[in-house]
Design a protein that fits this description.
- The chain has helices spanning 46-53, 76-86, 102-112, 117-130, 146-159, 176-193, 204-209; strands at residues 2-15, 18-31, 35-39, 61-66, 69-70, 87-90, 164-168, 196-201, 212-217, 220-226.
- By secondary structure, it is of the alpha/beta class.
Length: 227
């Protein structure tokens, strides 16, 4: 069953009267439980498509559907609620809150969800242990390596109990060993928790690990490979 769908999606950016097409009529279905990658060079449209799937942007034309809901029909408040409860995000730049500890960063989304303090603390500590950071819960982002920060970001993305995690170039700032460990971690979460993962990437390591690779060129799907 498709958890995410793009139906004839286009996205055009306009700067000073000049229009730049980023997506040109994309049709794509992502099945629940997939570990998939949107691959392509810079400017291919992969990050734009990921942002549309994450309700972080709106298509110029076409529809984006999450679990049967057309995102274009939802209010701003409904979209915020959807992002809070159904989606997890992992970004290239980590996007951790610098004044919060690792545990507090993981707790943050759960706090927004209204989870009680003791429960969210216990869940955060369990998730940090799961990503190999049981001893770093009191550390702030600047006291951790890039790989450690990205592990915290993965724990935070999973903490809300999302149906799908969207990861935008999550290995771009990591060395190959750390990137490989992070991918193994996310693959384990996909297999054991059933969380759907969708990456945007040009990293060969991510592409090799993915069970499905959708390749984009100039805003169009050029290939769709299942393994």
């Amino acid at each position: 069953m498709a958890i995410l769908e793009a139906r004839n999606v286009t996205k055009v950016y306009e700067t000073r009267g000049v229009e730049t097409p980023a997506l040109r009529g994309v049709d794509l279905e992502v099945e629940a439980g997939e570990f998939s990658a949107l691959a392509g060079p810079s400017g291919s449209g992969k990050t734009t498509l990921l942002n549309l799937f994450g309700a972080l942007d709106e298509p110029t034309t076409g529809s984006v559907i999450l679990e049967g809901q057309c995102l274009g029909e939802l209010s701003a408040m409904e979209l915020a609620d959807l992002r809070l409860h159904k989606l997890g995000f992992v970004f290239q730049a980590y996007n951790l809150i610098p004044v919060l500890t690792a545990r507090e960063n993981v707790e943050f989304v759960m706090e927004l969800q209204g989870v009680k303090p003791r429960e969210r603390q216990e869940r955060a500590e369990k998730l940090l242990a799961e990503v190999g950071l049981a001893d770093l819960g009191a550390k702030r982002p600047l006291e951790m390596s890039g790989g450690q920060q990205q592990r915290v970001a993965v724990a935070r993305a999973i903490a809300s109990g999302p149906r799908i995690v969207l990861a935008d170039e999550p290995t771009a700032n990591l060395d190959s060993k750390t990137a490989g460990q992070l991918l193994d971690l996310m693959h384990t979460m996909n297999r054991e928790r059933g969380v759907t993962f969708l990456f945007s990437t040009h990293d060969p390591m991510v592409i090799d690990k993915a069970s499905r690779v959708v390749r984009l060129v100039d805003g169009r799907i050029s290939a769709d490979e299942r393994r």
